Amino acid sequence: VRLRLSARGENEQLLLDELENQLEKLHQLIGDIIKGYEGEGSLEEQIAQKFIEKGLSLTTAESCTGGRIASQLTAVSGASKFFKGGLVTYETATKNYVLGISQEIIDTYSVVSAEITKEMAIKAKALFRTDYAIATTGNAGPTKGDSDAEIGTVFIAIATPSGVEVFENHLGKQREKVTEKAVYKALGLILDEVNK
To answer: Quick one: average pLDDT of 135-162?
Structure first.
């Protein structure tokens, strides 16, 4: 969502001061979800800049997002300086024989779960030998597939040098919108993490 603040009047300094005042009020309300300002570039560009500045690396392991996170990241010029590659482990069995997630964990928790997403991030980070990894799995619909999780449920895991955090999201029922929201949510989460 792009939010624009504007003002009209004769006194430019008065208008600038009032805009700054309103921006401060806005930060008090939604500061934790603001991802950038005009002129800073897209989420992907901000991620690239931060990872390159800090000399860090990133990989992805995607299921329901089907490689779209990797696609967004590699659309940025210079992505090879921080993005080492990614996997699309869409089919349940692929999570087992490519990422090495045990069938027991898959059977116990189902493929759309916090536990599987966490394992995907850990395994991808180790496989690509990166500092960070993003993993996604979910039910984008229109049917539930190999899981009982409700349509629109998406888990996103971020593996960092100090651990793994998993986020559960409920993103609606329309397949394309669920996928798109999941991609941008994941990009926002990794940007927040690298900015810490």
So the answer is: 88
The angle formed by the CA atoms of residues 71, 73 and 77, to the nearest 5 degrees, is 110
Is pLDDT above 90 for 189?
Answer: yes
**Tens-place pLDDT, residues 32-85:** 666 666 656 788 999 999 999 999 999 999 999 999 999 999 999 999 999 999
| Average per-residue pLDDT for the chain | 90
Q: Within 13 Å, how many C-alpha atoms sit on residue 39's CB side?
A: 0
In a domain, residue 10? The reply is: no
How far is it, in rounded angstroms, from Cα 138 to Cα 151? 8
Q: Residues 122-137: pLDDT tens digits?
A: 999 999 999 999 999 9
Domain count, the chain: 1
Identify whether 15 is part of a domain. no
Q: Is 80 a member of any domain?
A: yes
Q: For the chain, how many residues are written?
A: 196
**Residues 6 or more apart in contact with residue 113 via CB below 8 angstroms:** 137, 147, 149, 155
CA distance 119 to 141: 23
Domain assignment present for residue 17? The answer is no
Domain span at residue 57 reads 43-194
At residue 160, the 3 state secondary structure works out as strand
Count of CB atoms situated within 10 Å of the CB of 180: 15
As given in the structure block, the two tokens for residue 111 are 């493929």
Q: Residue 77: give its domain's CATH number.
A: 3.90.950.20
Confidence of residue 159 (pLDDT cuts 50, 70, 90): very high
